[in-house]
């Protein structure tokens, strides 16, 4: 409501000054307008009212509707002035302008079928992940000779490399002795 009020004031001011009314608002101007609303117009009552309209609150106090009524009354006066001067030539009404975005979808909620499908898809993905690789399968303990052969294979591989620190070989020998 506060944002619409600011935009309408700009439009009406342009009409009163016989200036060209800009039909579209670019993103930069919209953000600047929202910033002004947040900085100068939004009060705790405004925020509480948003929660009430969004059905996030079960409070039924309508004291903030007085603020909206005052804003609407102010806009209606300005609109009558501009309209009475014959500067508005089409059939636009104040209600048309205020409700231009009333039917825009601002949130959507999944249907029960979509929720069930999503859950079923997630379960399938989890099942596929758990059985797709060998990381979830418990490996049997390797036999001692297999482990000793692995040490020998690793040692032989390092012997063929350049610049292998002696500490690697001493660690391999310690592991082999431990085994």
Structure summary:
This protein has 179 residues and is an all-alpha fold. The chain has helices at residues 2-16, 27-41, 44-53, 65-84, 94-98, 112-132, 144-159, 166-178.
Question: What keywords describe this structure?
Answer:
179 residues; mainly alpha; 64% helix; DDE-1 domain-containing protein
Descriptive report:
This is DDE-1 domain-containing protein. It comes from Araneus ventricosus (Orbweaver spider). This protein is mainly α and 179 residues long. The protein has helices at 2-16, 27-41, 44-53, 65-84, 94-98, 112-132, 144-159, 166-178. Helix 7 runs antiparallel to helix 8 (166-178).
Helix/strand layout:
Layout: H1 2-16, H2 27-41, H3 44-53, H4 65-84, H5 94-98, H6 112-132, H7 144-159, H8 166-178
Helix pairs in contact: 1-2, 1-4, 7-8
What are the secondary-structure elements, in order, as H or E? HHHHHHHH
Number of strands: 0
What is the rounded Rg? 36 Å
Mean pLDDT: 77
Number of helices: 8
Q: Poorly predicted ranges (pLDDT <50, ≥5 residues)?
A: none
Largest sheet: none
The helical percent reads 55-70%
| Proportion of residues in β-strands | under 5%
Distance between the termini: 78 Å
Going by helix content, strand content and strand pairing, the class is: mainly alpha
Give the domain tally.
Answer: 2
> What coarse outline follows from CA principal-axis ratios?
elongated
Organism: Araneus ventricosus (Orbweaver spider)
Protein name: DDE-1 domain-containing protein
């Amino acid at each position: 409501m506060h944002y619409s009020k600011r935009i309408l004031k700009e439009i009406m001011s342009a009409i009163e000054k016989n200036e060209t009314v800009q039909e579209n608002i670019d993103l930069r101007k919209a953000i600047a307008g929202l910033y002004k609303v947040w900085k100068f117009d939004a009060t705790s009552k405004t925020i509480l009212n948003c929660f009430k309209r969004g059905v996030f609150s079960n409070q039924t106090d309508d004291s903030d509707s007085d603020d909206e009524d005052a804003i609407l009354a102010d806009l209606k006066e300005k609109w009558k002035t501009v309209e009475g001067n014959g500067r508005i030539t089409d059939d636009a009404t104040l209600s048309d302008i205020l409700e231009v975005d009333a039917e825009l979808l601002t949130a959507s909620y999944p249907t029960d079928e979509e929720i069930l499908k999503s859950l079923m898809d997630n379960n399938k993905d989890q099942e596929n992940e758990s059985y797709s690789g060998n990381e979830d399968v418990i490996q049997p303990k390797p036999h001692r000779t297999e482990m000793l052969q692995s040490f020998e294979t690793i040692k032989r591989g390092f012997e063929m490399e350049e610049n292998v620190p002696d500490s690697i070989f001493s660690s391999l020998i310690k592991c082999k002795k431990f085994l």
